[in-house]
Design brief:
98 residues, alpha+beta, three-stranded antiparallel β-sheet, 2 helices, elongated
């Protein structure tokens, strides 16, 4: 997987009443303005490198196969979502809302 992003893991820290997302090298990635979901949004952004690594590994593991349905979830839909997410993150597909 080729992903052009700031390397390393990221962290969300509260600085001067604003959430800041920084890399492990302390590079500023983003800031989140005060709002009703500011902490949750900051933490979601901070964990995104781990999530894309996990999804990328999953996609490599399953290849073109799909998980079976379990009665509540569609295995094919979950696998398609994982594949699409990795494709958008790596630039192979465009963002669906642009």
């Amino acid at each position: 997987m080729t992903l052009n992003r700031t390397e390393g893991m990221w962290k969300a820290v509260l600085e001067d009443k604003q959430w800041i997302i920084r890399s492990s090298q302390n590079i500023l990635i983003a800031s989140v303005e005060k709002g009703s979901h500011d902490e949750a949004n900051a933490k979601l952004m901070a964990v995104s490198p781990m999530m894309i690594e996990a999804l990328s590994g999953l996609v490599q593991l399953i290849g073109e196969e799909d998980f079976p349905d379990n009665g509540e979830l569609s295995g094919a839909a979950i696998c398609d979502l994982a594949r699409s997410t990795v494709a958008v993150a790596t630039g192979k597909e465009s963002w669906p809302f642009s």
